């Protein structure tokens, strides 16, 4: 298989493996050099010289390897390395790639890289970036660096950067690109083609040209494909598309990303309240939004406050994780008190201790399925709070059927194991009721979170598990106390 035929994921893994191998070799050479620092006799000078040469040769080889890689691949490698190795690799990266790499790495890793750079290095790294890219990095940069970079921009670029910084990072205005091609509706397609040939290269992801009037208001778009096949003498106004998906700068970036996915967009115009064209959104930014939202949902469901550097200091990781662990500890204590309240029942019928984790475990699994589906629907705008009642009834039906089927199955097994038909019936009833509870909480938790303006995914996995554990123990042991003892 040739290099071009290999999958991107395979190439990424191979690049990471090669860099890690070079770093391991570097570590061994450094250990040898460290030993050579001890007082030695004259004959030892030659081995020390050889090891020093190996040190420089290995660094050169690592530097050459990094020079061959795309900034996004280097960002991937940096995220997979412990801090001391990450900083070593970061120091060997070509300075002209620093800005692009800072844009690509995760927020947590970016923080560690910026801390290792002085002000002059940071200014040099970001001064060639566009206004939209600078806006992405500005919240993480020292304020003095931002001021210095802004001072080096021309009036137009400075105005663009200030405009982007005036919006929250989750709004369209913070993500819009200012590099775009715009034309008038009254020119011919031939004039447009001649105009495009004047560019050294078109802005990235240019799939359409924006048509404006004298007041810069958006009138329509002319796709590049349409332009190429149209009569050269035809007026742009006659061949342009007037039904255009547009966005306002203050709209939510998440909503824009969903629209890009729905309508298969590559670029889309951003307009102000008067319909004036002020920028564009591109698919690469929207993909980043979708990825970040997906990662955020996964982290929030696990109770993590923010994205975490894999190799972050222990203290930082503890700060990120402690809150929901504390909540989980409280809910686990409640569950233990529920079990303690039925201690006499468990002593009289030991089988209860063996069977009650099954009831709680199945309930937790079912609840997580429901809550995942609800959170996804809320995130994609497919579910309105007014529909929660209808959805709860549907989930109730699913839980009752699953409870009777799988609760009946485990009830038969309990009857066979413990020779008690009554225990089998209690097991079936407890399983069904706990699945009903799981369905109810699976709908209730995220919809209440949404209603009160919180992220519906925040800690949902922890909360649903707490409800189904405590509720499952109470239901099962309560039924057993009533009908078996």
UniProtKB/TrEMBL annotation:
- Give the Gene3D superfamilies listed for this entry: CBS-domain (3.10.580.10), MgtE N-terminal domain-like (1.25.60.10), SLC41 divalent cation transporters, integral membrane domain (1.10.357.20)
Principal location listed in the UniProt entry: membrane
Q: Topology versus the membrane, per the UniProt entry?
A: Multi-pass membrane protein
Where in this chain does the record put each CBS domain? 240-296
Listed transmembrane segments = 349-367, 399-418, 424-445, 457-484
Q: Where in the cell is it found?
A: Cell membrane; Membrane
Keywords, comma-separated and alphabetical = CBS domain, Cell membrane, Magnesium, Membrane, Metal-binding, Transmembrane, Transmembrane helix, Transport
Does Ribosomal protein show up as a keyword for this record? no
- Source taxon at top rank: Bacteria
A Pfam family matched in the record: MgtE
Q: Which InterPro entries match?
A: CBS_dom, CBS_dom_sf, Mg_transptr_MgtE_intracell_dom, MgtE_N_sf, MgtE_transporter, SLC41_membr_dom, SLC41_membr_dom_sf
Question: Which SUPFAM superfamilies is this protein grouped with?
Answer: CBS-domain pair, MgtE membrane domain-like, MgtE N-terminal domain-like
PANTHER family recorded: MAGNESIUM TRANSPORTER MGTE (PTHR43773)
Matching entries from NCBIfam families are given as:
mgtE
Protein function? Acts as a magnesium transporter.
Q: How does it assemble?
A: Homodimer.
The record's similarity note reads: Belongs to the SLC41A transporter family.
Q: What is this protein called?
A: Magnesium transporter MgtE
């Amino acid at each position: 298989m040739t290099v071009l035929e290999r999958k991107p994921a395979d190439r990424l893994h191979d690049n990471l493996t090669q860099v890690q191998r070079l770093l391991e070799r570097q570590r061994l050479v450094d250990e040898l050099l460290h030993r050579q620092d001890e007082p030695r006799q004259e004959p030892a000078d030659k081995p020390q010289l050889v090891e020093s040469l190996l040190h420089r040769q290995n660094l050169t080889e690592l530097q050459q390897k990094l020079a061959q890689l795309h900034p996004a691949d280097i960002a991937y490698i940096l995220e997979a390395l412990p801090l001391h190795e990450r900083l070593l690799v970061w120091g060997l990266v070509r300075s002209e790639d620093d800005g692009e790499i800072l844009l690509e790495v995760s927020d947590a890793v970016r923080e560690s890289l910026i801390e290792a750079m002085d002000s002059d290095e940071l200014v040099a790294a970001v001064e060639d970036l566009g206004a939209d890219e600078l806006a992405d990095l500005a919240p993480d940069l020292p304020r003095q660096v931002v001021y210095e970079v802004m001072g080096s921009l021309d009036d137009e670029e400075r105005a663009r950067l200030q405009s982007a910084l005036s919006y929250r990072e989750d709004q369209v205005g913070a993500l819009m690109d200012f590099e775009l091609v715009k034309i008038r509706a009254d020119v011919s397609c031939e004039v447009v083609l001649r105009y495009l040939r004047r560019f050294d290269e078109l802005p990235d992801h240019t799939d359409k040209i924006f048509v404006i009037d004298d007041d810069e208001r958006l009138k329509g778009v002319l796709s590049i494909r349409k332009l190429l096949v149209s009569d050269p003498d035809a007026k742009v106004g006659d061949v342009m598309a007037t039904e255009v998906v547009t966005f306002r700068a203050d709209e939510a970036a998440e909503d824009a990303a969903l629209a890009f996915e729905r309508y298969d967009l590559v670029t889309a115009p951003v307009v102000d309240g008067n319909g004036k064209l002020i920028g564009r959104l591109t698919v690469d930014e929207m993909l980043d939004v979708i990825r970040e939202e997906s990662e955020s949902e996964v982290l929030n469901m696990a109770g993590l406050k923010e994205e975490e550097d894999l190799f972050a200091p222990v203290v930082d990781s503890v700060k990120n994780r402690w809150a929901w662990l504390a909540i989980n500890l409280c809910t686990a204590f409640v569950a233990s008190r529920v079990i303690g309240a039925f201690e006499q029942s468990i002593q009289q019928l030991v089988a209860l201790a063996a069977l009650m984790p099954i009831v709680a475990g199945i309930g937790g699994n079912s609840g997580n399925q429901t809550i995942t589906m609800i959170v996804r629907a809320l995130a994609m705008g497919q579910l309105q709070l007014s529909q929660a009642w209808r959805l709860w009834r549907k989930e109730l039906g699913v839980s009752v059927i699953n409870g009777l089927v799988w609760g009946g199955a485990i009830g038969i097994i309990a009857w066979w194991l413990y020779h008690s038909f009554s225990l089998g019936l209690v097991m079936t009833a407890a399983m069904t009721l706990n699945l009903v509870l799981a369905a109810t909480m699976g709908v209730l938790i995220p919809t209440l979170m949404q209603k009160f303006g919180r992220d519906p995914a925040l800690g949902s996995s922890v909360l649903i598990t707490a409800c189904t554990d405590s509720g499952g123990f109470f239901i099962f042991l309560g039924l057993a106390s009533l009908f078996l003892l």
